[in-house]
Amino acid sequence: MQDTPIYGLNPVEELLASRMRDVEHVYFDKDKKSGALFNLLRICRRERIPCNLVPEVKLNALAGTARHQGVVAFCSIKPYNTVEDLEKITQSVAAPLFVVAASIEDPGNLGAIIRSCVCLGADALLLERKNTVPLNATVARCSTGMIEHLCIVKPRNLEGLIAEHVDSKGFLTVGAVMEGGAAPDRHDFTKPTILVTGGEHRGIPPYLQKLCGHNVSIPMTPRGQSLNASVSAAILMYECMRQRGLPAISD
User: Fold this and answer.
1) Are residues 162 and 190 in the same domain?
2) What DSSP letter does each residue of 19-47 carry, written as one string?
3) Per-residue pLDDT tens for 52-106?
4) Hey, what's the torsion of the CAs at 73, 78, 79, 84, to 10 degrees?
5) What phi, psi does 202 have (nearest 5°)?
6) What is the domain-level CATH number for residue 32?
7) CB 73 within 8 Å of CB 15
8) I need a labelling partner for 71 at 20 to 30 A (CA). Which of 31, 52, 104, 249 fits?
9) Residue 239: which residues within 8 A CB-CB, separation 6 or more?
10) Coil, strand, or helix at residue 144?
11) Strand 97-101 versus strand 71-75 pairing type
């Protein structure tokens, strides 16, 4: 959750009007009724912004004050990039690598994935509107500042965006699964690729798994049960970079 809440009818209205794509979550007083609050709730639901109706006592705790007028919002610490920014990458990079980090709930894991994306050559990170930790101060700290150097997009319709890149832009969609997939070095990662990784508990959500035309699984020793989500993502990104040509290591 974000360190600094934005609360009150006018501030939240302005936030939704000017920085809608950066809004991570909106909380409403479940017992407070007004046309203005209902309109804000309707906007959140229409735009697929995560929102909850909560007791007033929780809203007081979130806002740090009782003067919230029934609504509290939280924003990302860094503005999200736009779909247009993603399109510029698609047009300028010969074989883009986009990583989808689905259902990541731990800010340390998301920060580590962002760091790996920058270090291992991913061109952009795509996030779900829901079920993913927000870009908060902990994520930024765990990325060791790399959050400032990566195109991070949280599209309104992630499923549709991926399908569009597969259908009309020649991308291959590769899912990282626990078992049953090909070994990563047996898959051709030199083509435009969307690498879909799952979260700590749920794996890849079914609505994204059905979009994966290919699946890969990381081989492990018999004693190994699973890998941390950020470690799995880093291993697969390294394989992508290896196939595409490792950068020179300076002395």
Assistant:
1) yes
2) -GGGEEEEEEETT---HHHHHHHHHHHHT
3) 999 999 999 999 999 999 999 999 988 999 999 999 999 999 999 999 999 999 9
4) -140
5) -100, -15
6) 3.30.1330.30
7) yes
8) 104
9) 184, 185, 189
10) coil
11) unpaired
Same domain, residue pair 114 and 181: yes
119 and 199 in a single domain? The answer is yes
Tokens 């990282």, residue? 176
Q: In what order do the strands lie in the sheet with 97-101?
A: 151-153, 124-126, 97-101, 193-197, 172-176, 214-216
Number of compact structural domains in the chain: 2
Question: Is 1 a member of any domain?
Answer: no
Judge if 143 and 201 occupy the same domain.
yes
Q: How many CA atoms lie within 13 A of 167 on its CB side?
A: 7
**CA–CA separation, 7 and 15 (whole Å):** 10
Condensed to tens digits (0 to 9), the pLDDT of residues 215-235 reads 999 999 988 778 899 999 999
What are the C-alpha distances in Å from 117 to residues 96, 97, 120, 231? Answer: 12, 9, 5, 12
Q: Are residues 188 and 214 in the same domain?
A: yes
Measured CA to CA, the distance from residue 181 to residue 10 in angstroms comes to: 51
Whether 107 contacts 142, CB under 8 Å: yes
- Residue 28 in any domain: the answer is yes
Residues 13, 137, single domain; the answer is no
Predicted structure pTM score: 0.89
Q: Which domain holds residue 94?
A: 83-244
